[in-house]
Design goal:
The complex is a heterodimer of chains A (103) and B (395). Chain A is of the alpha+beta class and 103 residues long. Chain A is built from 3 helices and 5 strands; from the N terminus they run βαβαββαβ. Chain A has one domain: Roll (Ubiquitin-like (UB roll)), CATH 3.10.20. The radius of gyration of chain A is 13 Å and the shape is globular. Classes of the chains: A alpha+beta (103), B mainly beta (395).
Chain lengths: 103, 395
């Protein structure tokens, strides 16, 4: 099965935790490119991010985290739904974003 | 010459303040973990260069940090980068920021709900670590008090955490309920004379004690009176804000409750009120002089509806008689227009010959007294809101 390099854009706080100074990170995904497979690959490469995007136990998205790609809000999509082709082909990044909250 | 290292957790990062034994000139390092709330930092009494920190965020959850060089560098003591986060058998490895409640029938009893604000039952949900208490004897062992209230222990330097589930499972858990700040286990006191004895406090459930290393627990709230609890003998439901013990008198504890300053002489079996002549006995912090076990400190706050000092004057009160008789300490503290709060983990004492006392405010000031409270000076004035203050006395 082919491996595809996926771009993931992380918020600044998570880049700091992952010790990534600038820009997007890339992860290798084998098989279907979904939220779950991308985040599994991200956490395998950056284990310090476990629990910061998805709940440790339920694996559900944390309430104040959002997923965007190709100008679409994918936060409420199934974690096993295919991501847009532009993300799956590595052309566009998959965005992990801290929700705007507070004043 | 001896020196001190003050560990400050704030709403937007951690700071480390250092000075020599005179405690006059301070060096300020930080922010560490900039932008993240850091609820608490505390150093190991066995290895003072080992410091644990609770970095936490409503957005991105809980992160445990550890320094082994006195706060210069920090690591997350979990799975190293590049290693898989699952073991060959498919089970997740124990990452350092993973706190999972024990619901096994054998050890934890499947306790899943507590009381919610409206009286209904609500699932236990992990939110953050409020307090980290390193072991008195083993630098790899550290306890964590968490919200929703539970006690966890790590025996591998913070890499993995296991719940001491006998606390939640002892029977009254479904009656515990959150205070205004959440249902947090915020105080952990280890008995230096008895390794099997630990005291903890939860807002709003009360204080608890184990005498068998955390397997079984009993509520220790007899004598507490809370206006909002109709039953004057209620063992559960009290909003304890903080408890403190002096190492030389491990059976004596002091408590700042929501309202009331309390004392027990028998390890919590019975409490008596020692608010005495305090101008208000609402407050959050309480601590004890390092060398005088009957000298205690509180910061009176006007009321539960007005979380700031009386009349805009920031004051520490000291009792040299173990309570009841209190003196106002004001030299160097704001005389007017001061409307900050001092949160429950934001006071501490050092153990130098002349005991130093420290506290931090929600206005970002950290005050120090190098003479047991007689006079105060601000170390820093403009940090983010201070959540916790701990001090290490170093050779």
């Amino acid at each position: 099965m082919s491996r595809i390099t996926i771009q993931v854009a992380l918020p600044a706080h998570l880049r700091t935790l992952a010790r990534v100074e600038h820009g997007d990170v890339t992860v290798e995904v084998e098989g279907r490119v979904t939220q779950r497979s991308v985040l599994d690959a991200l956490e395998a490469r950056y284990p310090m991010l476990c629990g910061t995007i998805r709940d440790h136990t339920t694996q559900e998205r944390r309430p104040f985290v959002r997923f965007f790609a190709c100008e679409q809000d994918l936060s409420h999509e199934s974690p096993d739904a295919p991501l847009p082709e532009a993300v799956a082909s590595g052309k566009e990044p998959f965005f992990v974003i801290g929700a705007i909250a507070g004043g | 010459m001896s020196k001190v290292r003050v560990l400050v957790g704030t709403r937007k990062g951690a700071f480390i303040l250092t000075a020599d034994g005179k405690r006059e000139k301070w060096n300020v390092d930080g922010p560490f973990f900039a932008g993240w709330p850091v609820y608490h930092l505390k150093g190991s009494p066995v290895d003072p260069n080992r410091i644990f920190a609770s970095q936490t965020s409503d957005w991105f959850g809980q992160v445990i940090q550890r320094s082994d060089d006195g706060g210069k560098t920090w690591i997350q003591p979990g799975t190293p980068p590049g290693e898989p986060t699952t073991a060959p058998g498919g089970m997740p490895k124990g990452e350092s920021n993973k706190f999972v409640y024990d619901t096994s029938a054998q050890s934890g009893k499947p306790l899943t709900t507590h009381q919610w604000y409206d009286g209904t039952q609500h699932p236990w949900e992990f939110k953050r670590v409020w307090h980290l208490e390193p072991s008195l004897k083993d630098p790899d062992t550290v306890y964590a008090g968490v919200e929703d209230a539970a006690l966890f222990r790590s025996s591998d330097g913070g890499k993995s955490w296991q719940e001491l589930s006998g606390l939640r499972g002892h029977g009254t858990g479904p009656q515990w309920q959150p205070g205004a700040g959440g249902m947090c286990l915020h105080s952990i006191v280890l008995d230096p004379s008895n390794a099997q004895r630990i005291f903890i406090a939860i807002s709003a459930a009360g204080a608890f004690r184990t005498d068998d290393g955390g397997k079984t627990w009993k509520p220790i709230n007899q004598g507490l009176r809370s206006q909002y609890i109709p039953d004057p003998k209620a063992e559960i439901g009290h909003c304890v804000h903080h408890i403190a013990m002096h190492a030389s008198k491990p059976g004596v504890l002091f408590m700042q409750k929501h309202w009331d300053v309390m004392r027990t002489n028998n390890a919590g079996d019975v409490w008596t009120e020692v608010s005495g002549n305090l101008p208000t006995d609402f407050g959050f912090v309480i601590d004890i002089h390092a060398h005088e076990p009957e000298t205690i400190y509180v910061v009176p706050i006007k009321s539960d509806g007005e979380h700031f000092p009386l009349d805009g004057k920031l004051r520490v009160y000291r009792s040299r008689t173990g309570g009841n008789e209190w003196e106002e300490l004001s030299r160097g503290l704001p005389e007017r227009d001061c409307y900050v709060n001092v949160l429950r983990d934001a006071m501490c004492v050092d153990s130098l010959d002349k005991c130093g006392v420290y506290f931090g405010t929600t206005g970002g000031q950290v005050y120090a007294s190098a003479n047991a409270g007689d006079s105060w000076t601000p170390i820093v004035r403009d940090l983010p809101a201070v959540l916790s203050v701990e001090v290490q006395s170093l050779p």
